[in-house]
Amino acid sequence: MNIDMIRASAERARGHIRRTPLLSSPFLDEIAGRRVFIKPECLQMTGSFKARGAWSALSGMDPEQRARGIMAYSSGNHAQGVAWAATAHGVPSVILMPADAPALKRANTAALGAEVVLYDRATEDREALGTALAEERGLTLVKPYDEPLVIAGQGTTGLEIAEQAAEAGIEAAEVLVCCGGGGLTSGIALACEADAPGLVVRPVEPQGFDDVKRSLEAGAIQRNNRMEGSICDAIVTPQPGDLTFPILSRLCKTGIAVTDEEALMAMAQAFLRLKIVAEPGGAVALAAALYHPEELERDTVITVVSGGNVDPAVFTRALALLPEAS
Amino acid sequence: MNIDMIRASAERARGHIRRTPLLSSPFLDEIAGRRVFIKPECLQMTGSFKARGAWSALSGMDPEQRARGIMAYSSGNHAQGVAWAATAHGVPSVILMPADAPALKRANTAALGAEVVLYDRATEDREALGTALAEERGLTLVKPYDEPLVIAGQGTTGLEIAEQAAEAGIEAAEVLVCCGGGGLTSGIALACEADAPGLVVRPVEPQGFDDVKRSLEAGAIQRNNRMEGSICDAIVTPQPGDLTFPILSRLCKTGIAVTDEEALMAMAQAFLRLKIVAEPGGAVALAAALYHPEELERDTVITVVSGGNVDPAVFTRALALLPEAS
Hints:
- 2 copies of one chain form a homodimer.
- By secondary structure, the first copy, chain A, is α/β, with parallel strands linked by helices.
- In chain A, helix 1 (about 5-15) packs across helix 3.
- Chain A has 14 helices and 10 strands.
- Chain A has 2 domains: about 5-50 and about 145-320, Rossmann fold (3-Layer(aba) Sandwich), CATH 3.40.50; about 70-140, Rossmann fold (3-Layer(aba) Sandwich), CATH 3.40.50.1100.
- The first copy, chain A, is globular.
- In chain A, strand 7 (about 175-180), helix 9 (about 185-195) and strand 8 (about 200-205) form a beta-alpha-beta unit.
- Chains A and B meet through helix 2, helix 6, helix 12 and helix 14 of A and helix 2, helix 6, helix 12 and helix 14 of B.
């Protein structure tokens, strides 16, 4: 895993993956008490940074292998990214989703061109089902984060951040990244190490699901005690990846954990001041910038809003936190 | 008014005005039955394209004149654009706002650095008050659309559209633009005439407030019968401008008028599929693309989402139009 793989991924992404802008607002600067820049990956293809990793994996794969088809397990952003990338490459994809996944997510994944195969969480073994399907059809599994080509794709976000920081005259800053398995965080950290050594990456997670923060502090992989109970479902993973953790450990500074309420308030501010739609898990880094000033060290922070695939009901709940006059 | 003024404005804007991306979604393509691209000016500084015109006017003005201060009449997006541009140039600005303007808009305009002067709509004459203030303090009035430097600034949106269309391989398309006084529409039309002659500009307005559409059809300036009663308040103006109308008349094809309901549905789709926040007046062009297929001629449309300064309550009303499963 190295910077050349990220640069190669960026080359392959040209014309397919969006270069998202770098946003800011004087109103957010005032809340945070420092300069805040926002990299809105909710504006990426399929509504999250996952499209980068999926594109990277498919475009970097042996074409004959790819032509036989792609498989992924996911009910969320990775599913949509893989379905989109496979269709764009003209190859079939099969996404294994739990039968109780929300109807809209199933419909979206299918509409993006994937064959959605449902399984019963209670009675069926996802891994066994996946392995059998993959063998039968010759499908290649694309893992959500612990896969070098995927990390390289997510790292292209970091190449853009490094470029855009230079354009904005930013030499030193903390880069706050929404962190689940660590694919996006480790990819950005590698890109910044190479292209913008003044940018220090810090992972941000939901409180109670801060496996990466605790793993960094312990110097060894720690697990979350539970997998349910956070509104930030998109970034709740059991533990850091075997590939991502050593990178995070070498390059990242202390993690930050935010509450669900802070994530919702950050979504509301992103609506009001940036005009972007963030999902709860995608808003935790912005929440850290706005509501955890005592944990920040630099006068400039760059935060990634990693996705915007949120139900209207949850979004409405976030907007209700704004004062009446807004 | 010519293309060189727009190019000069773009030069002056470098590093200050955002180059907004060009977005798309297969889901919107499906609704529209054609390819739909979206230029999200809600992501511009201050949340609307008005920042372009304001920056253009201030940066193109004699520096001594500018230093004495700027004035504008507006309770909406132009107010915020002018306040921001003046503060960024380090010069004072005075915005005349009706005393019954929403508290948040007054607060935002003041927070962006303007001195907000309130007047009573019922008993005071805005023009007389403005003229007296301007003379007393040597302030220069920046008009919202009927001003060459402002049209040139809005036209920089068109230069970007021309470039981005070329990058996306689009040679021919209808460009649908949310239209009030015509500053944005005429600026984009001039830019496309020069840089992308295959792009045909069409103004979009709220039904019942389609003065530009009727003026184009009549070949002479027509007025709206009323100024109130549309949710798309940001683009309701009494009539096309004296400077903008000849340009619109020479370069634009037939206008399109959409209902308030269609504008709200377009806002909801922009939330769901693009992850951007559009205000009602800023969503009328997207509404035309999605819900008026019988009035479109090309298989590709580019729509401008011109602003995103919308109250949470109105936004929530738009989201309520989405099916439950969303």
